[in-house]
Amino acid sequence: MKAQEIPAGAMARLRRGAAIPAHPLLLTQGRELDERRQRAVTRYYMDAGADGVAVGVHTTQFAIRDVGLYEPILRIAAEEVRAAGNDRLLIAGVTGETAQAVSEAQTARDLGYHAVLLNLARLKGQPEDRILDHCRKVAAEMPVIGFALLPAVGGFHLSYDFWRSFAQIDNVIAIKMAPFDRYRTLEIVRAVYDVNAADRVTLYTGNDDHIVLDLLQPFVMRAPDGHEDRLRIRGGLLGHWSVWVKPAVELLARIHALPDGADIPEDLLALDSIVTDCNAAVYDARNNLAGCIPGCLEVLRRQGLADSTICLNPDETLSPGQLEEIDRVIAAYPEMTDDAYVTENLNRWLAGTVPASA
User: Which of 21, 237, 349, 352 has its Cα between 20 and 30 A from that of 181?
Assistant: First the structure.
């Protein structure tokens, strides 16, 4: 599959800028897959207006590969997303050394996924030329979304020269930037611009500490002759958007509705600190993100979508004080939640029925 073979509607969503939740794993109290709730969460995302899902990524828990759940989880999500229609995007996380990453890309391709999000964490410490070769081999199987992942959750920083070369790989269609570092974010934007790849490689934010301003900010690129262009981050592929999805979709739509060069309303600018504060609680910033996955599950548990915050790794739990922080942001910013919407539709999502208007 080549990038141009992605259905036109799905590609248009990607290029316009999509709201893509990173899909969590839903487990029973016995640490078995809870398929009913796994499907219910995907239905929630689709009905809330998400443009697709990313599955098999950090939020889905990398350990699914160790317990034989990679293919089942991808398949379940694909079935529910296709049932929702409207060319929603299916993105699969792939990781590991080259043989594993290629095999996972082939699995995703066979399940009808549109692209893979390429996690390079297992290649940490290897020469960048070797990492680029790895990327090219995966791109020979599937359209690729690059991933600049912060070290706190297993990633490592790559150079400007790496991102220049990466952006020139034919089947690279986007880059998710999540270094949680303004300098390195700007460096990736510049690398894409400097190889004239901006029309082919769409920029996405994964910077959970800076979501709103990433989406609002024009990045000024100025050539030696003074010619100036402005690049934009178009959408988000975010673990933070695995919860409170309806307000997230509405936020992105409001940002997209602003014409280039328009004055930005002060209340929209103020949302950057509000969203970051919410993320700090859910993603456990106080404890270096140790409780980020249980934090997302806790929000879904409160809404009735998850049964618990249990992860495959018994040691992966909510951090001390994290529940109180989640309580605080929910009380402070009720407009950022979608509890009433979930309550209204929860039984239907759990039962697998379609809306009356469908």
Answer: 21
